[in-house]
Amino acid sequence: MNKTLVKVCGITELAQAEQLRNLGVDYAGFIFYAPSPRYMVGKIEPAALRRLKGIQKVGVFVNAAANEIEEAVEAYGLDAVQLHGEETPAQAGSLNARIQVIKAFRISGDEEVKTLTGPYAAAVTAFLFDTKAKAYGGTGQQFDWSVLKTAQFSRPFFLSGGIGPDDVAAVKAFLTENKVYALDVNSKFETAQGIKDLALIQQFLNGLKGL
Ligand SMILES: O=C(O)c1ccccc1NCC(=O)[C@H](O)[C@H](O)COP(=O)(O)O
Question: Which of 35, 38, 39, 157 could staple 127 via S-S, CB 3.0–4.6 A?
Fold first, then answer.
């Protein structure tokens, strides 16, 4: 069985991205959505991020224009883009022809998740399930993961939304019964918005060992 990968999202410092890479984190998420407190533009130099290797760099966008996304991919050397708004399957598919696209779905618990993901199956590389809340992401709120149980998704998925240091046991239990491609963590591992607590992340990674 493949190991479940880990993505740390909302990074605003190059040094932290390097440290996370050194801890063995698989994906680093960078927010390209100006209203977010984790907006990274102006905080990390494009050329410096482009030189960073050994961790998959994901740009997170909310309803951004295709040319804005493509410019950021080029300037920052992104490996994947995460579409976290109301982007259509056609928009996602057109980007996915050039770069891996992770489509985020914000879950309230009332919807049929397979109905949401169905139209995107052929258009994206992976799905990401986050919690539906007032803000688009980074809210620290968790949804009821049982809505994903038993569903066979046509794409690998990231489990996201309020996963914190105290959730190791719950995550492990969920992973024993469900095939999760990667875990996505963010605000529950911060000392301030956009600044990660690396000791907590190391502890979390240690807790997941053996999966
Ligand atoms: O993190 C943000 O500020 C953010 C803002 C707008 C869109 C997406 C954003 N984050 C995307 C992520 O992938 C987060 O890791 C995900 O929402 C989970 O965050 P959290 O609930 O804090 O663990």
Answer: 157
